[in-house]
Amino acid sequence: MNNDNLRSIFESCIAPFNLSLTDEMWDRFEVYRALLKEWNEKINLTAITDDKEIIVKHFADSLSLYPFIAGKSSTLCDIGTGAGFPGVPLKIVMPDLSVTLVDSLAKRLTFLETLLGELGLSGVNLVHSRAEDFGRKPGCRDSFDYVTARAVAPMNVLLEYCLPSVKPGGKFIAMKGSKDEGSFAGACRKLKGNPVKTETFQLSCGDETFERTLFVFEKTAPTPPQYPRKPGIPSKKPLN
């Protein structure tokens, strides 16, 4: 499939998000796609390697957050960012957004450092840390306007990973593949979160359509001092 067709598919996917793609943005996504495939042969970054699927399932999917944060001068933290999703695509279309990318694997951060250099993007901070440790770091705890994560854990675990880094009045947006996330009301309450919105949408990739759900939580007060618990505990003993 040629680049014009790929761009057309991309633009069709992001049109419902009220987002237009400039030539500069598209050029950066092209570099991103090529570098992702190149590095994926050396380290495990993604199971998705088809060009069209990268465009839809990584890039367009990441930009589904755009309507929630557009038009604001904001700080965003992407916890468990992996190959940079959703933080880097959001930075490409929102150059003024201050982005922090957090991951526990140093090799992924080496890829992201190379990627950001190739894209010529500034205002992105890379942090090598587990989520539980990051939520206790000075300057990171109760600090960000928006925190996001892309389906890295069950919701009651994800809340403990991410809500501690959201500032009071800020929002945590969880990107999920399903509306059914089980019970997480207890974890949300203990971590001073308030669920404010759940939005489901569909992205089309040729004959395949897949469903995504965004869960939006507002932080109502500073994180209680006992959270997040030590690394490993949230996943072994989830809050309820």
Key descriptive features of the protein:
7 strands, globular, 37% helix, 240 residues, alpha/beta, Rossmann fold
Outline the structure in words:
With 240 residues, this protein is an alpha/beta fold. The chain has one domain (3-236): Vaccinia Virus protein VP39 (Rossmann fold). It is 37% helix and 25% strand. It contains 10 helices and 7 strands. It has helices at 3-14, 23-40, 51-62, 66-69, 87-93, 106-119, 131-134, 155-162, 185-190, 233-236; strands at residues 75-79, 98-103, 124-128, 144-150, 166-176, 193-205, 208-219. The protein has a 7-stranded mixed β-sheet with strand order 3-2-1-4-5-7-6, with helices on both faces. Strand 2 (98-103), helix 6 and strand 3 form a beta-alpha-beta unit. Helix 1 runs parallel beside helix 3 (51-62) and helix 2 (23-40) runs antiparallel to helix 6 (106-119). The longest helix is centred in the N-terminal third of the chain and has 18 residues, at 23-40. The chain is globular, with a radius of gyration of 17 Å. The termini are far apart. The model has no long low-confidence stretch (mean pLDDT 93).
Regarding quaternary structure, how should these chains be classified? Answer: single chain
- Proportion of residues in helical segments: 25-40%
Output mean pLDDT.
93
Q: Beta fraction of the residues?
A: 15-25%
CATH topology: Rossmann fold
Give the count of structural domains: 1
Query: What's the SSE pattern?
Result: HHHHEHEHEHEHEHEEH
Total number of strands: 7
List the helices and strands and how they pair.
Layout: H1 3-14, H2 23-40, H3 51-62, H4 66-69, E1 75-79, H5 87-93, E2 98-103, H6 106-119, E3 124-128, H7 131-134, E4 144-150, H8 155-162, E5 166-176, H9 185-190, E6 193-205, E7 208-219, H10 233-236
Parallel strand pairs: 1-2, 1-4, 2-3, 4-5
Antiparallel strand pairs: 5-7, 6-7
Helix pairs in contact: 1-3, 2-6
